Give the backbone structure.
Amino acid sequence: MSPDISPDSYLIFHHLITPRLLKKGRIVKVKHPTYGLIIKKIIKQDEQGDYWLKGVNKDSITTVEMGAINIKRIIGIVIFNIKSK
C-alpha cells in the first residue's frame, strides 16, 4: 500500500456518513458495484455531488476505472489507522 496505509495496518471506521465529513484527502471505505469493498482517498466532489477517488496503493485501480461514486456507496470513513510495528 502507501505510506497512508501499510499492508499490516488495522483501520477503524466511522460509519455515520454526512457530506460535511467527506472532504478532499479523507480515506473512505466504498461498496463498489464492480470491485466490492475498496478503500480509497477522496480527490474531489463533482457538480452532481458524486465523489472521485484515488487508490492508496500504487497498484490500485484508476480513478477512471472506478468512476464517480455516489455518497450512498461510501460506507465508512477512516478515523484511526493502527500500524503494526
The mean pLDDT is 90.
